[in-house]
Amino acid sequence: MKAIQVFQDMPIRRKIQLINVIIILPSIVFLTVTLYQMTLHQAEERALRSSEQKVGHITNTINTLFNDIENFSKLSMINKTYQSALMETGAENSELQQLDNVQSMYASLNTLVESNPYIDSVVIQSMDGSKIYYSDNMSNVTVPSVQVYPKEQLINAKGTAVWIETFESLFLVNDQHKNLLSIGRRIININDGLLIGYIYINIDERKLSKIYSNDDLRSNIMIVNPEGKILSANRAEVVSQSTQDLYGRILIDVDGSAIVKSGKQNILVSSKVLDKNGWRAVYAVPTSEFMKDQWKITMFIIGFGLTGLLLALVLSIIFSKWITNPIMMLSRAMTAVGDGKLHTRTMVSANDEVGRLSYKFNEMVSRIQDLMHTINQEEKQKRKLELQLSYSQIKPHFLYNTLEMIRSMALMRQAHDISKVVKSLGDFYRMSLNRGQEIIPVSQEQKHLESYLFIQTSRYHHMNYRIDFDSRIQECWIPNMLLQPLVENAIYHGLREKQEGALCEISGWIEEMNGIDVLCFTVKDNGNGMSEDKLKRIWQYEQTEHGLSSFGIRNIQERIRLRYGQPYGITIFSLPGEGVEVKLRIPLIVKKTELEERI
């Protein structure tokens, strides 16, 4: 128990360091060394077998292709069209017959090109070099351009095929200069055995490389001559280079498959000789390419490795949970306090940094909660005192009694109009003061407005009003004196100066705002309206000869924002000559207690 307490009281950095040493270091060292040795040997054996199979397949495919093309060249030696075109003379054949032979010659060459997808083009040259025939996809074929073909080798070969190593053509094939491999034969007169010409069948090196270019690794697959010159490769940039420039002499010396060292890296090399000219197919790839994932695939992971990793995982979960639980609890507590839940506290379980931080956090939240409670109480008391001060200044009972006396005197003198006005005035002030209550039902606010508007229409006979409240909102609760200042503003700034037809409309209903139901009121007049500039000045505290401009509207706006916050409040719509519409939105409160909680 003492050791556990000592560990709990350690700094977090020491805890993490100790756990890393206990769990990670022995496991990583043991697994890395063992798995690397086991998988390296297995991966090398698999890679050697795979490379041998790959090179064998490539060799067989290329041998078959070369044999097929050699067979095409053999057939061309006895082709009657070639024989006729190469042996004709101007004296023996008419001009028309010569033209027919030439056309047949070109048609036959094009047929030979189309017979095999790897045959790129064909050239036939007479013995003296004066006549050159070639397939239609070639251009810029001249006597100097065909000197790239070694005639002497063909003569010395005595009729056998001669494979010509990769060269860049001086002529164009399909409007391009290409790297070509060619097979050449001499053509002899089948009647007397004399030499009459030469045939060259060209193979596009890029087409040949597609046979072995589908490889995912960073490898080189090449055809090289006995001196190490690269005749064809899956990577075009190494063609015509020497393997000694890439890997030294290792590719020339290796016969079969082996892993050899080249500079700072090991290279897996597989090599097999082709049937032609001593050329060979070579496959070379850095061992790092096929070894990068092999260490994970090992039997040790299933056996001893799985046991070690499982043990490390269990210990890691236990220790990490032990360390991080207090931090997570503190984080959740901070989040809750940030969301306004000041009653939240976090548990203190140790005397380390997190424990001391948790203790100070709890202490800080308690102080904040006490301060906020004190501030709320002071604000409520301040508001009550201010309201009581206002009510005491009015002396409501004296006012009610005086108004009732005036009303009785008016009735005694049969002045019924005066009696009604005085009664409305008394009702107005009685509902305005409301015994110091800050919230009232909508139905009471409606009666308040009716008393006020009766007095105003008695004063301004050209003015009328209409109140239309939805029956569903009659029992909803709203702050006292919410709509009367807006109606008063409409009368004194919009309807008082209107000569006739003045109308004030007050409406109330329930509408949806941002997915919730809210209480909405409008106070609309048909007065002269306001310009956009005047609308902007309403919200500015500008001193006028009559006091603060639009003080009533701003006062209502501040009361709403203080009580309910955004996005509730007043919106004003107006155009010159079309009156003013003031729209007011507050939360829909059905129970009085809900409204008191917002104070």
Automatic annotation (TrEMBL):
<feature type="domain" description="HAMP">
    <location>
        <begin position="321"/>
        <end position="373"/>
    </location>
</feature>
<keyword id="KW-1133">Transmembrane helix</keyword>
<dbReference type="InterPro" id="IPR036890">
    <property type="entry name" value="HATPase_C_sf"/>
</dbReference>
<feature type="transmembrane region" description="Helical">
    <location>
        <begin position="297"/>
        <end position="319"/>
    </location>
</feature>
<dbReference type="Pfam" id="PF06580">
    <property type="entry name" value="His_kinase"/>
</dbReference>
<dbReference type="GO" id="GO:0016301">
    <property type="term" value="F:kinase activity"/>
</dbReference>
<keyword id="KW-0812">Transmembrane</keyword>
<dbReference type="InterPro" id="IPR003660">
    <property type="entry name" value="HAMP_dom"/>
</dbReference>
<dbReference type="Pfam" id="PF02518">
    <property type="entry name" value="HATPase_c"/>
</dbReference>
<keyword id="KW-0597">Phosphoprotein</keyword>
<protein>
    <submittedName>
        <fullName>Histidine kinase</fullName>
    </submittedName>
</protein>
<dbReference type="InterPro" id="IPR010559">
    <property type="entry name" value="Sig_transdc_His_kin_internal"/>
</dbReference>
<keyword id="KW-1003">Cell membrane</keyword>
<feature type="transmembrane region" description="Helical">
    <location>
        <begin position="16"/>
        <end position="36"/>
    </location>
</feature>
<dbReference type="Pfam" id="PF00672">
    <property type="entry name" value="HAMP"/>
</dbReference>
<keyword id="KW-0472">Membrane</keyword>
<dbReference type="InterPro" id="IPR003594">
    <property type="entry name" value="HATPase_dom"/>
</dbReference>
<dbReference type="InterPro" id="IPR050640">
    <property type="entry name" value="Bact_2-comp_sensor_kinase"/>
</dbReference>
<keyword id="KW-0418">Kinase</keyword>
<keyword id="KW-0808">Transferase</keyword>
